[in-house]
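Try it yourself: sequence plus zinc ion, in.
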Amino acid sequence: MPIIEALTAAKAALDISGKISDLVNRPNIDVTEVRANVHQMLIHLVNAQSGLSEAQLEISELRQQLDERERIRAIEADLEIEPDGQYYYRKSERSASKQIQYCPVCWGDKDKLVPLTHSAESTLFECGIHKTKYCTKVYIEALKQQQSARTNRRFSRA
Ligand SMILES: [Zn+2]
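Structure, out:
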């Protein structure tokens, strides 16, 4: 913990400053001893400064992580699963009449909002990253009708 190192060094510097004060108040000042203690005090001050710099860096990194978590939490609170297609949409966007569909897998995997591409009729959506398809009831119904039409044709030919 850089902050503990900084505090320890600052306390050591303070202790030495007291010692220096004693030394200079003596009738016969020992310049060599005073100089050695001042030097020692400076070393502690440099250590305190570097500990504080490290602590500042650590705090700013933690703040960034916290901001990122809050951003993710805010998006999560805004996301809703569309029952007809099982994709995500944002409540705020829908209430602003924006129709954007998002991939639930990409959000779950990397906290990334990836808009889905859609068919001309907007009944089928697809993630451009991992190619998963999200089908609406209208799309599934149309698919069933195509298949039964094909089966009927086959039977009528036979
Ligand atoms: Zn995806």
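One thing you can check immediately is this: The chain has two domains: 2-73, 82-157.
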